[in-house]
Amino acid sequence: MLSKGPAKKVCIYVNEDTRSHMTPLYEAILTYLLHKGVAGATAFRAMAGFGAHQLLHTPQVELLSEHLPIRIEFVESAEKVEEILPTLYDMLTDGLIEVHDATVIKIANREKKTEPRLPHERKTGKAKLLRVYMGEADRWHDQPLYDAIVKRLCMLDISGATVHRGILGYGVKGHTHRDSPLHFSHDLPVLVSVIESEDKIAQAAEVIEEMVEDGLIVVSDVEVTRLVRSRLGATTDASPPTR
Fold first, then answer.
1. What is the mean pLDDT of each run of 10 residues along the chain (243 residues)?
2. Across the chain, where does the E strand assignment appear?
3. What is the distance between the alpha carbons of residues 185 and 54, in angstroms, rounded to a whole number?
């Protein structure tokens, strides 16, 4: 257990693409440190660098971008560092290990407060489901149509809305839109769905109809079942859920 006072700071420098068996070396080192009970360790990915091979590695050079340096850093007691250092020495096939004297000034561990939860409350009722189908490339003035619709719904005090981005679909024009590395599309299908009371859905549908030039608006009846789990001292929201 790391405590205040004298300690050791260890820095390990490796390349991102250096491997230990089938695992990146920096991941293998972090896993080992975790297994040995080291108080904490962090891996930093550098933006650029060069080493003993005098070859500059930078994200601007695609062939060298996966060879960027990684720095692993942790602070521990001298006894713990002495215990794990021989294994780290053996694991490091290409890189650098530094050990520095350090002093731990403060150790702050924020404890998470756990609040007892009340049994959930089951709410049921009738509502309306509004679904708006459009293309990802559809615009409203200078912004994506789906984004503008969600903002307008928020202004109408609609309890919630969800935007779904399709991976494959076609419309009345018979054009297939797909999300694929071999078939890049900027006009994939997008669905905005809302569940609300009948009067609010009617108001929202009227506003959205003025915004949609090429799409589909569908309203249907739904039975809503909502499970609300409240915490002590918290108020519950009785609005219907989104899907």
1. 90 88 91 93 78 57 60 94 95 92 85 66 88 92 93 92 84 54 62 94 95 93 80 50 50
2. 5-15, 19-20, 23-24, 41-45, 69-76, 96-104, 121-135, 139-140, 143-144, 162-165, 168-170, 176-178, 189-196, 216-228
3. 42
Is residue 240 helix, strand or coil?
Answer: coil
CB of 10 within 8 A of CB of 99?
A: yes
Task: Give SS3 for 201.
Answer: helix
Structural domains in the chain? 5-104 (3.30.70.120), 121-228 (3.30.70.120)
What local confidence, expressed as pLDDT, does residue 59 receive?
54
Q: Which residues pair with 134 in a beta bridge?
A: 190
- Among candidate residues 29, 7, 13, the one with its CA nearest the CA of residue 75: 7
**Measured between alpha carbons, how far is 109 from 211 in angstroms, rounded to an integer?**
51
Q: Are 51 and 70 in contact (CB under 8 A)?
A: no
Give the three-class secondary structure for 123. strand
Handedness of CA 174, 180, 183, 189 (dihedral sign): positive
- Output the pTM of the full model: 0.46
Q: What is the dihedral of CA 186, 187, 189, 191, to 10 degrees?
A: 90
Map tokens 């920096």 to a residue.
26
Distance, in Å, from the CA atom of 134 to the CA atom of 93, rounded to the nearest integer, reads 54
